[in-house]
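Figure 3 (text version): structure tokens given as input.
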């Protein structure tokens, strides 16, 4: 049984979704930074996709140069506070910290990163200014971590940058898809505002680009175009009953909770289908929203799930239970969900085999599908000359240039759905690629 009651107001919601990486105060940051061994060839840096100079920024915090620490971090990663909070540090920098070999708690790198970045964010201390204008313009489609990171680097190189965002807010999945116990919407918005003030790029909200004519217009007005559109809605399971009331996609469910928590339907007995990190988030959130019973249902064995172990632990800690080796065959109900019919599965070599005659009905009143997000194939097909990989992601070269040389792309639409930090890292390479491409044309 979940320990949470249904939140009726903002205070109760805040209590149910307490931050799992709360902000350190100055004493805590000083103490934690004192423990760092400032390793040569530090494994924590090697494990960071954006290669932040972690020992340097920790030393800067320790010597009282917090603004310098923030600059060290932002130089490598424009989503410094966001990544400090939402990165799976347990398997990246903190997972690589040498203290793990001594059975000592690793340095809390993520929280130190958020401490330094929050220092400049709250003081509104600028760290950058745009480079001298070079008269060239770049359009960016999508104001998520990839698009905003590319915008910052392109402004540093002197390009005029316009960002077109289909939704009403920036930050992509950080706003719409990351669990609120990792980062609040306000924190995510503050970081984009902080960057926009310094780099002075335009963001046009509620401005989806669609149709060949709009792409042609962009191509006529901009020297290069960067695509940072992420992924689409939750993929269909292609089984009966998916259109029943109270059967939802995980990303749509998480988005609804972030935007309108008090009007989001939460069942009494919720089944989340999937074994990845999004499934863990959706299950944890359903429990924190007061669903008395929440189950994760995964078609393979527990040790084959795609989610990080610490994400599974977070879900278990709020009372979520696991059903493994079960595959859904039908969502049951007349007009709304009343249960799921599963079939048991077993592994034979690489193959997952349904066990004949093992079907059973599991009663529940809500189903959340966390079975991956669809690729935006139709959107991409509107742009001439952009090849896609077999899995629907955008084909790019080492500089994240697509097969249509005017278009660059990175983030989930290219990597198929990774972490915020990967989108940021790839966007920096793409921005450099755009700069080299346009410089060669001068
Ligand atoms: Fe500090 Fe750990 Fe990185 Fe070494 S590995 S520099 S101790 S954070």
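Below: residues designed for each position.
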């Amino acid at each position: 049984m979940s320990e949470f009651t249904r939140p009726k107001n903002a205070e109760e919601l805040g209590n149910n979704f307490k931050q799992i990486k709360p902000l350190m105060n100055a004493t805590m940051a000083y103490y934690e930074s004192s423990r760092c061994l400032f390793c040569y060839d530090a494994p924590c840096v090697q494990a960071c996709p954006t290669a932040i100079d972690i020992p340097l920024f920790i030393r800067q915090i320790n010597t009282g140069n917090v603004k310098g620490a923030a600059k060290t971090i932002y130089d490598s990663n424009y989503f410094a506070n966001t990544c400090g909070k939402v990165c799976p540090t347990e398997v990246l920098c903190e997972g690589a910290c040498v203290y793990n070999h001594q059975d000592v708690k690793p340095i809390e790198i993520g929280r130190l990163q958020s401490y330094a970045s929050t220092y400049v964010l709250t003081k509104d201390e600028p760290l950058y200014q745009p480079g001298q204008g070079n008269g060239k313009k770049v359009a960016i489609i999508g104001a998520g971590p990839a698009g905003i990171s590319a915008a910052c680097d392109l402004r540093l190189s002197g390009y005029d940058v316009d960002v077109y965002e289909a939704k009403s807010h920036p930050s992509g999945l950080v706003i719409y898809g990351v669990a609120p116990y990792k980062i609040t919407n306000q924190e995510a918005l503050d970081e984009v505002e902080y960057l926009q003030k310094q780099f002075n790029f335009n963001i046009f909200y509620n401005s989806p680009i669609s149709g060949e004519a709009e792409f042609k217009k962009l191509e006529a007005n901009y020297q290069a175009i960067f695509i940072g559109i992420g992924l689409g809605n939750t993929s269909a399971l292609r089984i009966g009953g998916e259109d029943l009331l109270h059967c939802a996609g995980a990303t749509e469910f998480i988005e609804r909770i972030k935007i309108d928590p008090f009007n989001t339907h939460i069942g009494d007995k919720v089944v989340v289908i999937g074994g990845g990190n999004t499934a863990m988030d959706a299950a944890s959130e359903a429990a924190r929203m007061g669903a008395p019973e929440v189950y994760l249902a995964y078609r393979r064995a527990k040790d084959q799930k795609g989610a990080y172990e610490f994400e599974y632990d977070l879900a278990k800690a709020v009372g979520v239970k696991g059903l493994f080796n079960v595959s859904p065959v039908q969502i049951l109900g007349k007009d709304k969900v009343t249960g799921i019919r599963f079939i048991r599965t077993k592994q034979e070599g690489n193959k997952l085999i349904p066990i004949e005659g093992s079907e059973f009905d599991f009663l529940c009143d809500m189903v959340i599908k966390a079975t991956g997000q669809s690729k935006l194939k139709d959107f991409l097909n509107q742009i001439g000359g952009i090849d896609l990989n077999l899995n629907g992601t955008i084909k790019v070269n080492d500089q994240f240039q697509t097969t249509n040389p005017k278009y660059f792309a990175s983030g989930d639409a290219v990597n198929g759905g990774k972490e915020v930090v990967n989108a940021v890292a790839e966007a920096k390479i793409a921005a450099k690629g755009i700069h080299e491409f346009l410089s060669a044309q001068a």
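Residues 97 and 103 are 11 Å apart (CA to CA).
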